[in-house]
Amino acid sequence: MKYDFDKVIDRRNTDSIKWKVAENELPMWVADMDFATAPEVRDVLVERARHGVFGYTDITDEWKDAYKGWWGRRYGFEIKPDGLIFCTGVVAALSSIVRKLATPNENVLVQTPVYNCFFSSIVNNGCRVAENKLIYNGAEYSIDFEDLEQKLSDPQTSLMILCNPHNPVGKIWDKETLSRIGELCYKHHVTVVSDEIHCDITEPGINYVPYLSASELNRKTGVMLMAPTKTFNLAGIKTSAVYTEDPVLFHKIWRGINTDEVGEPNAFATVGAIAAYSKGGEWADEMRRYVFENRKIVEDYIKSNIPCIKAVHGQATYLMWLDVSMVGKSRDVADFIRKETGLFLTAGSVYGENGDGFLRLNVAAPKKLLYDGLERLKNGIEKYVNR
Length: 387
Known about the structure:
The protein has 13 helices and 15 strands. It has helices spanning 39-51, 61-75, 90-101, 117-123, 145-152, 175-187, 216-221, 229-232, 247-259, 269-279, 281-305, 330-341, 367-385, and strands at residues 26-27, 84-87, 107-110, 128-131, 135-136, 141-142, 157-163, 191-195, 222-226, 240-243, 310-312, 319-323, 343-344, 346-347, 358-362. Strands 2-10-9-8-7-3-4 form a seven-stranded mixed β-sheet, with helices on both faces. Strands 11-12-15-14 form a four-stranded antiparallel β-sheet, covered by helices on one side. A two-stranded parallel sheet has the order 1-13.
């Protein structure tokens, strides 16, 4: 490999949320990577810092062209630059959209188990969570379309938040599935907000399908949330984009984001995104190969050494979904493992009731840390079973 993903970088004492843990603890929970971002991106950020003046920053055509180029080259999806809106983050955009497009006591549909901030974006804005629970057959997840249509047909349901690819189960929704969702949402007058932040971190040789690309109806009913932050480990510079091709949706979302004052970039937000999308392709490809090597290591290790749990095979994200339902409740197991071994994982119950019995493990780390985590996981599970 051209880039070194094996290097262990000490992130303690850097105000890292992930690494604000006790000295003996190993955090493998929150969704940021323990890799330094691409050197091509770091060089641009350093150059910008050397300039020394960090005044108010505007959105440029170069920023829009960077998004257009990345999605065009990698996914064959043509972005219209005039459909892009800058926002300081995907969650900020999501919350602003919920505030603008739904009114209190209306339903916002999510497919559980799902990223926990979806719930807070809904509830904090006075709306109700409508759950379309994914079907788990013991090996993979699928959509219960009968239940989905029933929930969408409720006149109180105004929005659907889609996770594409899906966090935490690692599912890539195919074109047929996305088209079917679009048809149902168009039929029942529901707007789809598709969180596509994990889209680049897919199994090598397998690409995700942008929601708006799946059909013409999807283009009419949909909004995509995009960012380089997961792919390039740039969450701290607060940069993302909202994209829609519907002019009415565009105006409402643009108005909402500006009303909420989350539409102005800091001095690094646009230049970091431009550098990532214009210069970081080779790094991103090597990163995802490394991540999926790590995923395979975890699957094989668990199968050989911890047979009482199961790693759910996923085609996307660096977040692995571990089935510990034969062992115990997710919160009990996660808390026990952390107390006994120092390994900090996320309890699946935070992603919805049907996430109980699962743990989420972040594998975007050098292999030395990964193997340390797996040993701790093995010891923790054995102690929990034999307690």
